[in-house]
Amino acid sequence: MQNENKGNCKYVFVCGLQRSGTSILARNVARLENCTSFKNTGVLQDEGQYLQDVYPADVELGGTGTYGFDPRSHLTELSSLLTTENIARLHRSWHVHWDNSKQICVEKTPSNLIMTRFLQAAFPHAYFIVIRRHPVPVSMASQKWSMSSLHRLFEHWLRCHELFKEDRKYLRRIYELTYEEYLVDPAKHHRKIAEFIGTNAPTAVMESVTSTYNQKYMERWFSLLSNSPFRAYYRYIAHRYEPRFAKYNYSLLDCNGTSYRDAVAARPALGTVYCSLADALAFLWRLHGRNMELVTKPLRACLPKSFRDQVEDALREKSLHWLARLVAPQWFNELRKKIR
Prior knowledge:
globular; 7 strands; Rossmann fold; alpha/beta; single chain
């Protein structure tokens, strides 16, 4: 049953790049009093982008770590998609999945980060909760889903956050936090968010957050800087992007008392060669993925479903992930989405 009092609804959009903590944050916001979010929709991470047909989903614009480079991904109140008919269709598409007895509707899609102005125009009672995370964990984690080189993922992080920085001045209601701040005191942010969206502090048990993964990715990054055979490349991009990330209070050269500021970076010309090689390798991997899909997809389609299910169950074992990525990378990504 459609909510007959949609005019009284508040719409809370959780924004932030993939792997920035948007999912756990959105689930906890949805636990606040009088809040509802998408559940059991059958789409990836119950994200609203896959439950509508008004604007293109991330996957249509290049996917994780790439979509922000496509001009179509940055939507504002000036978008030609923002018609009366499309707004009504977008409302209908999402309201059928929200609990219509609740007045605060929560939607989480990472690319909300660069379409806040569009959403505000479509949903006048919009509230935005924006979470930002260190570019190293975001980019290195995104490599599992993206076939981009690491420096391109750094560039994508900066591109999206720079777009948001420009859009922010047009937003009426916004709450910002970093993933690192959320780790330190999640209860404080839950209280502040409850106050921000006009509801009560949580009475339900909230999902806990951990710093384990942040630490793991930072340790891996500093290992690449010091021990990798390709450390010249990693040191070059660390020095190259350090000033730009410093504007967001993040560092690629300092962590937990360890500093690589004295590490010698590759000369600019040589560093450019390293980046070109990294891009070439990423391209070859994408090409390999497409070619392997052309070969293996028809073969998989001929196999009995029961056998395909057995293969998928076997490939859920981490020890065999390398084989799935080699034989059919795109199919492996689909499998990982199921077990994510």
